Amino acid sequence: MKTTTVFFGTEQFASEILQSLIDSDSFDIQMVVTQPDRPVGRKQEIEKSPVKLVAEKYNFPIKQPSSKTSLTNLQSEIINLKLNIVCQYGLIIPKEVLEAPELGSINVHPSLLPKYRGASPIQSAIINGETKTGVSIMLMDAKMDHGDILAQQEVNIDPDDTFEVLHNKLLEISKPLLVETLKKYLKNKTKPQVQNDNVATFCKIFTRADGQVDWKKSAQEIYNLYRGLTPWPGIWTTAEGIRLKLLKIAPTNSNGVPGQIIADKNQLLVGCGKNAIEILELQPEGKKPMTGIAFKNGHKDIIKLI
User: Which of 2, 3, 74, 77 has the fewest CB atoms within 10 Å, measured from its CB?
Assistant: First the structure.
């Protein structure tokens, strides 16, 4: 018999987790809860979440609560079901809803908890220069990413891994790990492990402001920021009032004054607190992307980035 389940999720990672549950053929998805459709991009066109698109494909009932009250009201619809499965939902789920199903709620979190509790574990691990991270399958309680851990699996972070690359690595290990862990949990064959709150770390929601480059930092730190925040929100700097989005960069062993363009005919090199960054591709505000050399040749008067 399939397990009656409610799925909570919003982002792309979550949509593929939902698909893996469907493919397993072990779960009877009674309802999908996702965030409301939102305006996206410069044109502010209304866009459905990736999870909603999957739910519509399979004709699952969809709920999109727009307030805490409407989210809490889901309790009455969930109370007779077996399980909530949560992944990248993006909103705080009330305790009453978490505890409504017979077997509670299970979350898929892309970090090795208790490290990187919060909204941006993949980006934060890269930005902080971690060399490994992983996925945690956990029971949920009223606190953020705090519940007992049912299973974890590590993955290496390679030196040039961007957010998208690491996202996909974590997704590929998350799908089978979740399904296998759920099967064990439903048979009461898991041993939940309490998290050590003393070593917990937290991560925030990133905004465009977080992408501003501080040239006083080392080239490696700036490269880590680029890897973590590409493609969104991206990293940027300014040159004589021109905002420049840095689309592709690489660390080098060259040295120079922080923020100052280093004399080199074949590269656009910028000094950092330690070593230098080569800007391979950038986009001035309001213009099309261009190579670093093309920008340099067209702006010979610019000698410093801020």
Answer: 2
